[in-house]
From TrEMBL, chains A, B:
Involved in the assimilation of dimethylsulphoniopropionate (DMSP), an important compound in the fixation of carbon in marine phytoplankton, by mediating the conversion of 3-(methylthio)propanoyl-CoA (MMPA-CoA) to 3-(methylthio)acryloyl-CoA (MTA-CoA). Its EC number is 1.3.99.41. Residues 39-157 form the Acyl-CoA dehydrogenase/oxidase N-terminal domain. Residues 282-453 form the Acyl-CoA dehydrogenase/oxidase C-terminal domain. Signal peptide: none annotated. It holds the Pfam family Acyl-CoA_dh_C. Belongs to the acyl-CoA dehydrogenase family. This is 3-methylmercaptopropionyl-CoA dehydrogenase. Residues 163-271 form the Acyl-CoA oxidase/dehydrogenase middle domain.
Amino acid sequence: MPAYKAPLRDMRFLLNEVFDYPAHYASIPNGKDADPETVSAILDECAKYCEEVLSPINLSGDVEGCKFENGKVTTPAGFKDAYDQFVAGGWQGLSHPTEYGGQGMPMSMGLFKTEMVGTANWSFAMYPGLSLGAMNTIMQHASEALKNTYMPPLTEGRWSGTMCLTEPHCGTDLGQVKTKAEDNGDGTYSVTGTKIFISAGEHDLAENIVHIVLARLPGAPAGTRGISLFIIPKHLPAADGSVGPFNNVVCSSIEHKMGIKASATCVINFEGAKAWLIAEPNKGLEAMFTFMNTARIGTAIQGICHAELSYQGALRYAKDRRSMRAVSGKKEPDKVADALIHHADVRRMLLTQRAIAEGGRAMIYHCAQFADHMVNGILENDPAKYKKWDDKLGFYTPILKGFLTELGLEAANQGVQVFGGHGYIKEHGMEQIARDARIATIYEGTTGIQALDLLGRKVLIMTRGGAVREFTTLVGKFAVDNMRNPKMRSFATTLAKYAAEWNLLTMRIMLMARKDRDVVSAACNHFLMYSGYVMMAYFWALQASVASEKLAKGGSESEEFYKAKIATARFYFDHLLPRAKGHATSMVKPSKSIMKMPIESFVFE
Amino acid sequence: MPAYKAPLRDMRFLLNEVFDYPAHYASIPNGKDADPETVSAILDECAKYCEEVLSPINLSGDVEGCKFENGKVTTPAGFKDAYDQFVAGGWQGLSHPTEYGGQGMPMSMGLFKTEMVGTANWSFAMYPGLSLGAMNTIMQHASEALKNTYMPPLTEGRWSGTMCLTEPHCGTDLGQVKTKAEDNGDGTYSVTGTKIFISAGEHDLAENIVHIVLARLPGAPAGTRGISLFIIPKHLPAADGSVGPFNNVVCSSIEHKMGIKASATCVINFEGAKAWLIAEPNKGLEAMFTFMNTARIGTAIQGICHAELSYQGALRYAKDRRSMRAVSGKKEPDKVADALIHHADVRRMLLTQRAIAEGGRAMIYHCAQFADHMVNGILENDPAKYKKWDDKLGFYTPILKGFLTELGLEAANQGVQVFGGHGYIKEHGMEQIARDARIATIYEGTTGIQALDLLGRKVLIMTRGGAVREFTTLVGKFAVDNMRNPKMRSFATTLAKYAAEWNLLTMRIMLMARKDRDVVSAACNHFLMYSGYVMMAYFWALQASVASEKLAKGGSESEEFYKAKIATARFYFDHLLPRAKGHATSMVKPSKSIMKMPIESFVFE
């Protein structure tokens, strides 16, 4: 497994030079303490923890995996100790309110932390990651009493949390949930049912596990409108805040998965477990989905995590391993052969990984500011503010989650490819990254669901193309501003063309969809990928323009860094962005090329 | 793991309706016995064996894996029995000469068999597959005495074979081989060295293992011109044809791999093992590479194997699993939700898999006829004939191997995606297909090597664009022939445009490469993928045209089959072929967008 080195220079470039986080933090209520020195110190400290504690147990965690015996899950060697250090460092509550024991930093700091923790060891990151989901749901929807009971130990990390949605017969289609809740008449409920694919559902890291569970009340309407949300602790909380009696929450098995093997994926049986309702009855799905946008950005980060780690591994190998001579002549004549990095096709793979990792990171950092505002809407009890920023984030979310996880998987596979046969064997860890990356396009809403959410909901229904117009206005303005700069002209021209085309395609699909509703589902994957490529192009051009300004000023210590930014942007525009052309062509094809074939023709003969 | 059902209808469509194999077999010397009835009976028998014997041990083989203890490898439960049946059925020698005990069928029959065996169980297919490599090398290059010793037990399958090329420090770059051969002065040699990644290097299936080994003679020139080829049996053959004394060929470990876990990948130490030279001294690499084109087509087949198997699994699941309602309205109103197959985006994934499997199969069947002629050139001792057909095959080989294995991996990943979270866990076998598929773009020459071979060697150096002109002439003729047919016009027009563009792009790259040799390596991956998409388009249009003719005639029992062919062709043209546009744009970008960045800028900060 490649040793992880946190890309702090790149993170600081985005924070301070591209997106001006110091000004952003100064402008938000909970950003006062996030002054540049504090932010910098937190990033350094987090990097150190990730590099020294989490990275070394990434490969061993995969090899050992989680063990299940008599309802208990044992995490791999080193995980408990690493988690204790995580708790001691206060990392779980970094972005949560001080009243519950958190550090009160803005939400974005939590996302930057997630990237480092997740790159060093994604399996580990799943445990605190699921806790965040539970904490956010409780924070927004639970009563004060429940918050006071559960938020402090969850914020500390002494307890951990889960999200229990999926059942054996349904994952995406939660309207089919069958788990039952009965009213005990004392303000509590009894919940019975089986949930599957519960990440961090059972483990040995925390004292108690707090499940957020979707279930049906008696007589609830069928489908999505009859689902309520409950909080169900594995052990009932004692009055003094310690862990009380067992609450009939049983882990009956763990899954054997392709990857993220150190993350326990559990079948959880609720056997008449005592539960508390959060949010209104039958409005559980809405409540569950309020934090969906941030949760999905958390998963989008997984794309860049795997791209970054695989790039780091592939780059070291490409400098070290010697094979053949470069097509343009010997580069290292005194050596038995040239290092892989001298071969253009290997560089193409390395630059693809780099462009995905750094381009994706810029997309995340852009959206993290919206997440800060959105979360502050919740903390300030200002629903209008919450909605405004949640809506804004809502356009980016499916693009980031859908596109970045697909590209993260590609980048991870390129890393295997750079290693050749050695990439396929376990010892270098490159194949593990590809296996770990494979889940990201599936959970937290598959790529297909993201694509439908983007095109169907966010673009067509909610904004009638307005979301695309708003983003492309930003792109258009950038293009105009940069058109006269000879260093930026080619980027600006290309961007302006794509911005116009994106709107045109949106309009064409809107018109097509009026006559043929299948068009939306038939076109959505191409629309998602197209949107991703064009959006990432903007963020690459933006980075190139900042780098170009800095170089023009001269005298920087980071000249090589800035030049590399511009070169990677050039690579992106020449070698990845053109893929958008294929998607542009395909998305406006009639839906019948997908829907015409009768189901009877889908057979093996 | 999806139960495998051999796609016999599709295979017969290609054999009898698209490529006229009956006429082809009637025209070649060793095709006399391959009359339609015999061919049909062989395919049925092979399908039965694959479905009933090999498919059921595919998942269990992955879970159990190979075991290594004290130099011995134990294959998973059922493998030895399946191999015994393989031997008893005469499958190893299906396409090898009757004088050695084979069935004397044309080479192409062996390729069709490989597809079925490999789809049912790719790990199993590796054992007889490597034997074929050894047999072919011996048949073409060894002395009569060696042939008489080794060919009969290898053809029977009582012994198996390997190809020992890779060493710890070199795989692609075989000029770095260090294994040493010393002349014993009695017509034999002593070989010492370590080979890695030796598939089927040690196992419990056969009585003896015959290694074909690259090594250096004393004083041999450095690099690729100083490598010789040896035959080294694990046990020396006794005079009566049985297994004699151990020959100091030691398996010191097996690799822990991402996939194909039931295939033993061995480290083999030759510790002064007795060896016989085959082919001329220092011409080992040339000899090793003579059968390279057929070996690479064998690996290209792996792409369609995984696409087919993953499609079969995903299709069954998509018909069975219910989730949400189709965007265009309820399709199964009496059910709790619509089956996945009613969702356009799921169909897009299924059709992608199908288009890859069936399109790739057509490409293989087209080339298999060239392989027949080429092999007959060897059997007839007619070097000119051999060279003519080997050259012809040489243009297709890198496209088939490079492109089909990349798309096979994509198709396998789509199958995981159709299953959602269930695709990521082991029990359904979908993730195994994705892991098994991952090696195919790496071994037998990585995609990068195929791309360089195609653009650099086959297109630019050997034929100065002639290979592309020859193929596109075929495409152009097809387009002209079909332009007046209203059912085919749209396919024909699109094909004609791509054929013209392909030549134009080739010429542009040729001109660019004159001034900048890095262009070849910078452009080759895009050129390979572009070539693959356009070539597959031709074979889809060809299938559509045959299907369209049959439908026009009317009265066929296979109307649904033909309609599905046309619909899948339409899908391919609308949703996969447009990807070629991105590659067309990128391949003619200046090489500096890849090569400009100094190595010093490839750092983590």
